[in-house]
Design brief:
Radius of gyration: 21 Å
Number of strands: 14
Oligomer: single chain
Largest sheet: 10 strands, mixed
Number of helices: 12
Strand content: 15-25%
Helix content: 25-40%
Length: 371
Amino acid sequence: MIITKTPFRMSFFGGGTDMKDFFEKYGGAVLSTTFDKYCYVNVRHLPRFFDYSTELCYSQIERVTDVEQIKHPAIRNAMKMLDMHEIRLTYESDLPARSGLGTSSSFAVGMLNAFHALKGKYADKARLADEAIYLERTLCNEAGGWQDQIASSFGGLNRISFNANGYEVRPVIISPERKRHLNDNLAMFFTGFTRFSSEVQEANAKGRGDKTAQLKEMLALVDEAENVLIDKYANLDDFGRLLDYTWKLKRQTGSAVTTDSIDALYSKGIEAGALGGKLLGAGGGGFLLFYVQPERRKSVMEAMKDLLYVPFEFENEGTRVVYYSTGSYPPVEEKSESSHYVRWTGDAYLRTFLGYPQTADSNLRQARFRA
């Protein structure tokens, strides 16, 4: 049995510039962190006593005799990609899906981590991020960017930069006291609205027209916000004011980013004293994040009393295996190397699926995914 624990992420700045069609032309960057809310993926070999060979438990329960019968696209394609058979998979989460925290990508990363571990193989964080991007964006053909898979895999407070050659993960180096201050000044509330991120991305792409100028400005704000964090003499409250500004820009990038109800809630928080904030994720629902000075926190909490407040702490570990016991269950024979879906083959695997070699620096990926 394998159990993985993978964090969710909150993206502060640069969301939308991690879309491949944007960053290949103009570059991209996001400033984000993971925090102490997780998804757990439990995978084990299914004993051969049943009239089905695979059992999956997420928001639904599936029992099938063939991988092709699996309805969940990420599970089906991941099992084919890594040649997995005869398993029982269970998914649990601290927070609801479709809520703007990269939950689907956290699940993809945690599931791939568990699959590799069940095969007795170690996959580093960069490999897991790469495979999760390929799984969601290519095999499942879901619209979206690259930041969620990278953030949940690596963990921590990072600047993730993108260009035509791939991406780079760079930790934001600030003192523990300043990081604690930032954490304490953030407040997150659940709006009660959920949505599929890929559907929001598709709606925004169709309805936004050309929003290149807004995205470029949002990209520039990543530098400003990072400088606020790393400069110990800078006023940390400017981080909150920049959040307000980037949210106003984000609202201009698509018709599905916000709703009248969400706008009303945001205005209510600002009027109560929050310096800034944003709706986390692609838009349409999920969690509202506010930056609130300590002396204004009580009034903001009162203004948001009809919403669920979710306390959190930053985390730094990313995805990890928290329980490992492979046992001695004899797996079915794996597919041949010539199969479209091949088993793990180290760097050959990356060449087959991702089309680029693994670099010496695992934080810098020369990512060239197939269209």
